[in-house]
Design brief:
mainly alpha; about 70 residues
Length: about 70
């Protein structure tokens, strides 16, 4: 509830995925790494948010490190 209010106030995209949120709340500690079991699901959420912001992940993959 409070986190959604802060996100909306700061124009942060909200992705609703109650099953994933419940699992992370139950099994992950605050400020800890995301459990390996949930990497793919969390990566999909992050990718979705990047796309909302107009980020093209394929462009980053085609750049060479300096």
């Amino acid at each position: 509830a409070r986190i959604r209010e802060v996100a909306e106030k700061n124009d942060v995209p909200i992705v609703r995925n109650p099953p994933l949120a419940r699992l992370l709340h139950a099994e992950a500690d605050m400020d800890a790494e995301i459990p390996l079991t949930y990497y793919k699901a969390v990566a999909e959420v992050i990718g979705y948010v990047y796309k909302l912001q107009g980020y093209d992940p394929s462009a980053a993959m085609n750049t060479k490190p300096k």
